[in-house]
Amino acid sequence: MSKEKMQALLSDCCEEVLDFIKSRESIYTDGFVPATEINEGLGINFSAVPKNSAHPDGQRGWLFATFARMLEDQGRLVYEKRNRRSFYKRIGS
Hints:
This protein is of the alpha+beta class and about 90 residues long. The chain contains three helices and three strands; from the N terminus they run H-E-H-H-E-E. Helix 1 packs across helix 3. It starts with a helix and ends with a strand.
C-alpha cells in the first residue's frame, strides 16, 4: 500500500468521524459531543499493546484521538476539556 493510499484511507476515516459528530451535535445544547460517545458509537476503542506485553492497558481511544488531531490540524474540529472529560465539535458546516 502506498503512502498516498494510506493517507486517503485516513482521510476517509476522518470524514466518518465528522459525520458521526454532526449526527450527534444537536443532542447537546452547546454542540460539543463527548469523546466517549464518539469512541463507543463508532466502535473504535482498541488496545495498542501487544497481547504478550507485560503491561496490558485495555481498550483506549487512541485511534479517535489520532483522527481528532488530524481534523484539528485541518481547522475542522475543536476540542474542549471539562472535568477530566473530552468533548469535540465540528467547525463550520
